Amino acid sequence: MLSLRNLKKRERKNILHEFAIMTHWRYIQEDAVSAHHGLATDEFLMESHCSEENLDLPASLRLYTYRDHCALVGRFQNIQAELDLEACKKEDVQFSRRLTGGGAIIMGQDQLGICLATSPKAFEWQNLRELYVLFSKPIIRALQKLGIEAVFCSKNDLEVEGRKIAGLGIHVNPKGAIQFHTSLLVDLDILQMLKVLQIPIQKYSDRRKIQSVEQRITTVSREINRDMAVEEVRQGVKNGFEEYFQIRLEERPVSARENGQIKKIAQQRYLEDEWIFQRSPQPDMTGMSLKKTPAGLLRTYIGLKGETIKSVLITGDFFEGLAAFKTIERQLKWSPLNIEKIEQTVKAAFAEREKSTSNISAEEVVEAIWIAARRARAENRFTYNGSCYYPEKEKAKPV
């Protein structure tokens, strides 16, 4: 097992390269896949690295595109707040929910999906940030060869002069296998994105919408000032992984047997309403708060019956902390609306789940819940915002 702990940056790189020399990884290339097939295949690859038959395979790299178009929300988001579902149906945009956290994105044949699935024994890691930095290096190298200087940012994005060019996500299953996700913007139809993503600039004209989004995101084509073929970017990313990890990628397409297992995963999760619409508030929830934190945007809903908390739901474009949030939601249900009770419950849940909530504080969660409760009592409505492309919050306005 490769250990990256307690090593300086240069030492980590040297040991990593020594470990990986002459190692073979599986390579898969696909195009125009459906939302459910794309996500189910990535999960299958991650799970396959836990099986006995793949013990000698350290990792699999899948570089693929979605059909035009697919809208994917993050693991912890409220899909009804992030997507205009009626517009998705009208525009024939498929939608589903990822295993990885983060914000809502639109994917198609101009965005390169990158999935790195690794064995539990391939890397020994201390925290997720270490993995984000490591796995983003080959992508940064590929962009550099195109003349694009991208950097990894704390919100798990790759940025070029402050504008997002790729979003990153990681999921670790109970057996320790890792799924690393990247959505790399080779190009982007901003108007199509604006039709289906709920962001707080919908009241603006089309030109102002585009200008606002362009201030926050960029694409490969925009940075090099010419139309760039996805295939050229894909080859560059593939080369980047081989060069950085000093491995050889051997193409091995999905077999008929594997495709049967992938279809089963898709049916059980990515086509299932219970998975897609989880983290959505019940109709009786009447208060909502938005709070920006280092871990992402918290969108907290609360329902009250008099001075009693009927329900709490914590959603958002964050990447971790679900276990602690579920504990808080469960323990606050039918409890008195009392700030001391909320503080006690949140701090106890954070103490129990300290590792999974490292980028967000108990105080921030307490404040988010309390603001939502105050708004519920004042009968305020909530506003929609918080996509991957426009993360700034907009204050909820009273009715």
Question: What does this protein look like?
Answer:
This protein has 399 residues and is an alpha+beta fold. The chain folds into 2 domains: 2-276, Bira Bifunctional Protein, Domain 2 (BirA Bifunctional Protein, domain 2); 287-378, 2-Layer Sandwich (Enolase-like, domain 1), CATH 3.30.390. It has helices at residues 9-20, 35-48, 79-82, 85-90, 128-144, 190-196, 206-214, 220-224, 230-245, 256-270, 273-276, 322-332, 339-352, 362-378, and strands spanning 2-3, 23-33, 59-66, 70-73, 94-97, 105-107, 111-118, 123-124, 151-153, 157-160, 163-172, 178-185, 247-251, 287-293, 296-305, 308-316, 335-336. The strands form 4 sheets. It has an 8-stranded mixed β-sheet with strand order 9-10-11-12-7-3-2-13, with helices on both faces. Strands 14-15-16-17 form a 4-stranded antiparallel β-sheet. A hairpin with a 2-residue loop joins β14 and β15. α5 packs across α9.
Nutshell version of this structure?
The chain has helices at about 10-20, 35-50, 80, 85-90, 130-145, 190-195, 205-215, 220-225, 230-245, 255-270, 275, 320-330, 340-350, 360-380, and strands at about 1-5, 25-35, 60-65, 70-75, 95, 105, 110-120, 125, 150-155, 155-160, 165-170, 180-185, 245-250, 285-295, 295-305, 310-315, 335. With about 400 residues, it is an alpha+beta fold.
Sum up the structure in keywords.
single chain; about 400 residues; alpha+beta; BirA Bifunctional Protein, domain 2; Enolase-like, domain 1; 8-stranded mixed beta sheet; 4-stranded antiparallel beta sheet; 17 strands; disordered N terminus; disordered C terminus
